[in-house]
UniProtKB/TrEMBL annotation:
The lineage of its organism: Bacteria, Bacillati, Bacillota, Bacilli, Bacillales. This is Undecaprenyl-diphosphatase. GO terms for cellular component: plasma membrane. Its EC number is 3.6.1.27. HAMAP family: Undec_diphosphatase. It catalyses: di-trans,octa-cis-undecaprenyl diphosphate + H2O = di-trans,octa-cis-undecaprenyl phosphate + phosphate + H(+). InterPro entries: UppP (IPR003824). It is found in: Cell membrane. Keywords: Antibiotic resistance, Cell membrane, Cell shape, Cell wall biogenesis/degradation, Hydrolase, Membrane, Peptidoglycan synthesis, Transmembrane, Transmembrane helix. Catalyzes the dephosphorylation of undecaprenyl diphosphate (UPP). Confers resistance to bacitracin. Bacitracin is thought to be involved in the inhibition of peptidoglycan synthesis by sequestering undecaprenyl diphosphate, thereby reducing the pool of lipid carrier available. It is an enzyme of class 3 (hydrolase). The keyword Isomerase does not apply.
Length: 283
């Protein structure tokens, strides 16, 4: 593994970690770094190995969520381990069943339309459109929250099954690459009456089972590409993604109640415009 390979693994892990859970679309950002960097890593050798690497670094990001929400995740099954972000008070209404209800729509929709999504939506044009449409949904959510006489919304421990299911429906929109799962679900949560922070917490908690399950299944299918020569490259990317995802999540959770979604929406629109100019200028 060359020094350049290490740099590529670090940068790709950084991009994955910083964008996977922020409402800015990790897909849009990975398109950029894929074209600029991933193909230049000599150690990867083939598209199959490169795709395996993407799964590995995504697992690093998921591990960061597990660490940040450690106590809250245990509390879903009635075990109080205490002391971390999202700790639930005695009598919490948030249960594992709320998470399951929130996940069901996307699971069903994903299986039903998997071929359509893979065939028609994984294109630069559709990703750019999703970045912009998702931005308007985020702006709408912020606007709606300001129209309720400054009512801050429900907390995470006040979430109902109806709210969980409706947020799950919003998550279905995020199957459109570029829309952003966190952007869709946080916006949906705010529109359903949750505080911005509560909607973000629920989004991250839902991410653990659905992303871990999908990544694990994908990784098992790609085990043949986990050869000894690429494992150091994968480890560097995994650790980089974990560290930067942990930083990103803690930073985002500290900010979301203060700045809401508008700054992220503006950033997405600017990103879409820049990507569009670059893409269509080289066609």
């Amino acid at each position: 593994m060359t020094v350049w390979d290490i740099i590529v693994a670090l940068i790709l892990g950084l991009v994955e970690g910083l964008t996977e859970f922020a409402p800015v679309s990790s897909t849009g950002h990975m398109i950029i770094v894929d074209d600029m960097l991933l193909k230049s890593a000599e150690i990867l050798g083939s598209p199959e190995v490169a795709n395996t690497f993407k799964v590995v670094i995504q697992l690093g990001s998921i591990l960061a969520v597990v660490i940040v929400f450690w106590s809250r995740l245990w509390s879903l099954v009635g075990i109080n381990v205490g002391g971390a972000v999202g700790k639930s008070p005695s009598g919490s209404r948030l249960k594992l069943t709320h998470v399951i209800v929130g996940l069901l729509p996307a699971v069903v929709f994903g299986f039903a339309f998997e071929n359509f999504i893979d065939t028609y939506l994984f294109r630069i044009e559709t990703v750019l459109l999703a970045l912009i449409v998702g931005s308007f949904l985020m702006i709408l959510a912020d606007w709606k929250s300001k129209q309720t006489n400054h009512y801050e919304g429900a907390s995470l421990d006040e979430i109902t099954y109806k709210q969980a299911f409706l947020i799950g429906l919003f998550q279905c929109i995020a199957l459109w690459p570029g829309f952003s799962r966190s952007g869709a679900t946080i916006s949906g949560g705010v529109l359903m009456g949750l505080k911005h922070r509560a909607a973000a917490d629920f989004t991250f908690i839902m991410a653990v089972p659905i992303m871990f399950g999908a990544s694990l299944v994908s990784l098992v299918k790609k085990l043949d590409f986990m050869t000894a020569d690429v494992i150091p490259f994968f480890i560097v990317g995994f650790v980089s993604a974990f560290v930067f995802a942990w930083i990103s999540i803690r930073f985002f959770l500290a900010l979301i109640s203060k700045i809401k979604l508008l700054p992220f929406a503006i950033y997405r629109i600017v990103l879409a415009v820049v990507l569009g100019i670059v893409y269509f200028s080289v066609m």
